[in-house]
Design goal:
Layout: E1 6-8, E2 11-16, H1 18-24, E3 33-35, H2 45-48, H3 53-64, H4 70-80, E4 93-96, E5 99-103, H5 114-117, H6 120-130, E6 136-142, H7 147-155, E7 161-168, H8 174-181, E8 188-194, H9 197-208, H10 211-219, E9 222-226, H11 232-251, E10 261-266, H12 271-282, E11 286-293, H13 298-305, E12 307-309, H14 330-337, H15 342-355, E13 357-359, E14 371-375, H16 378-392, H17 398-414, E15 420-424, H18 432-439, H19 452-459, H20 465-470, E16 480-482, H21 486-494
Parallel strand pairs: 5-15, 6-7, 6-9, 7-8, 8-16, 10-11, 10-15, 11-14
Antiparallel strand pairs: 1-2, 1-3, 4-5, 12-13
């Protein structure tokens, strides 16, 4: 098997193995790690169509994580995709209306982040062992709602790790917030910040790039790593479920081998749709990658104009995990667009940092031919939830509704009837008030937790254990800070090397 190494999007002379890229999370020059090449699947789709989710995950990950042994990688997969998921399928594919919904929310925290964050701790501990790391690994994460809880659940009580999660205090749903602030585990810390997700994410990136802080913590026996989708150990496991969705359609006879499909992804930080792009590059017959945005439509504008501009109003919506103006993973695609020219990419990212915008030259935009961008507003989101429920009885969360409404626009505009998979990224139980008030405005004034039983009654879907667990759970994390105080919060948490 060909060895795949990883290089920084801002310095392609820097090369590391997969395990080192997973441990570091973010390159020391501020860039993101990208594979030296996108490997090609070495099993046919016909072969893959007879495999389980776990087996397909191995066939994908073995090609990217080439310094892991077969035994190491299979053990990580076995420990990740087990009874934590409430279905043996792991990621069911459900046909409703004109599309298949890829349900990515059957893990411990009922959001798609579980698909990668169930395996990342095992990849990271294996990587530490392979590289002789003795420092305690400090997972540092910014979240717009779902990554935080999934990371906390994944790293809870994992020996040799601690985890600090920053979230926008007023920018997540009540259920998302309670999932995080009730988290158990002496190695976990959850902090709200006064600001939005971009503030939290920028703060985390600056901390990763603080060489003096890095040296100080190394002396104390700690080193940082990331659980955000900037970590290649988060991104690669996501590739697997797009390969799996194609193989599943093939196994069911919904398509013939080689027939193309489209994929629609509700998009914020660009990691989930980038994983679909990697799946396409590996040989999965995906025709169009449809990028669905909410009213924070920076990506929609970028795909239409080639101008990335975050200088705009930040809008709080019913799909908070997409309330993002700096889509970090887009840098990986920009790097490809520049012809893997690290210097050119670094210049564009510096423009973004200093002016809040960059312009991709026309000659580089060919790299985006597989993508198209659409967006929907709050009215369209609610309309989609209501329409799909009335037509099929199926209830989706607001993020999935953004994608479904975008797909409706795409079909009307293009007439394209290619079989289409919509990434369904969260359980509707995480957003009960938004979902229920979309179905019937009479629910708009009720509290999120009060609507759990009503949602169960009209959907017939069992209340997830993740929701039952937090109904009366104790609030354990109450800290709130300014974005300028994030380093102080981390230092205070790490001050005592013995866990509390």
């Amino acid at each position: 098997m060909k060895e795949i190494t990883y290089m920084s999007t801002r310095d392609d002379s820097l090369r590391v193995k997969a395990s080192q890229a997973i441990l570091e999370g973010l390159s020391k020059d501020g860039g993101l790690f990208v594979p030296s090449e996108i490997p090609t699947l070495d099993r046919s789709m016909d072969e893959l169509s007879g495999m389980t989710y776990q087996q397909i995950a191995y066939e994908v990950m073995k090609l990217f994580f080439t310094d892991f042994s077969e035994e190491e990688l299979k053990l990580c997969i076995e420990r990740a995709y087990d009874s934590k998921f409430d279905t043996k399928e792991i990621a069911p594919l459900v046909k409703k209306g004109d599309a298949w919904f890829l349900e990515l929310f059957h893990g411990a925290t009922i959001a798609f982040k579980d698909m990668a964050l169930s395996i990342l701790p095992h990849l990271m501990i294996t990587s530490a062992r392979k590289n002789g790391i003795t420092n305690e690994i400090v997972i540092l994460t910014a979240t717009s709602g779902d990554t935080g809880k999934a990371a906390l659940a994944g790293f809870d009580s994992v020996e040799g790790t601690r985890i600090v999660v920053f979230y926008p205090k007023d920018g997540v749903s009540p259920i998302q917030k309670k999932q995080m602030v009730t988290q158990r585990g002496a190695n976990t810390k959850v902090v709200g910040i006064h600001g939005n997700f971009d503030d939290a994410q920028t703060g985390v990136k600056e901390i990763f790039n603080d060489r003096a802080l890095e040296a100080e913590l190394d002396q104390a026996g700690f080193q940082f790593s990331s659980a955000n989708s900037i970590n290649i150990g988060r991104l690669v496991p996501q590739v697997a479920y797009y390969v799996y969705s194609y193989a599943t359609l093939l196994a069911r006879g919904e398509i013939r081998s080689g027939d193309p499909i489209n994929v629609v992804v509700p998009t914020g930080n660009f990691g989930n749709i980038l994983a679909a792009f990697y799946a396409k590059q590996m040989g999965t017959p995906i025709r169009k990658l449809i990028c669905a945005s909410n009213e924070n439509k920076v990506l929609f504008d970028f795909f239409r104009t080639g101008v990335y501009d975050r200088n705009r109003e930040f809008i709080l919506t019913s799909s908070p995990s997409m309330d993002i103006l700096i889509s970090s993973n887009l840098e990986r695609l920009i790097y490809l667009a520049t012809g893997q020219n690290a210097a050119e990419n670094r210049k564009l990212m510096e423009d973004l940092r200093t002016t809040g915008r960059y312009v991709l030259p026309e000659e580089m935009r060919g790299a985006f031919a597989d993508f198209c961008g659409y967006y929907t507003d709050e009215e369209g989101t609610a309309e989609m939830i209501r329409d799909l429920y009335r037509e099929t009885g199926y209830i989706i969360d607001p993020h999935t509704a953004v994608a479904a409404h975008v797909y409706r626009q795409y079909r009307e505009e293009t007439g394209d009837v290619t079989p289409t998979v919509i990434a369904s990224t969260a359980s509707p139980y995480k957003f009960t008030r938004s979902v229920m008030s979309a179905i019937d405005p009479k629910y708009a004034s009720e509290e999120d937790f009060a609507l759990i039983d009503q949602l169960h009654e009209i959907s017939g879907v069992p209340i997830p254990q993740a929701i039952e667990d937090i109904r009366s759970a104790e609030i354990r994390h109450k800290d709130v800070c300014e974005k300028e105080e994030m380093v102080d919060v981390i230092k205070a948490f790490l001050q005592n090397k013995q866990r509390r």
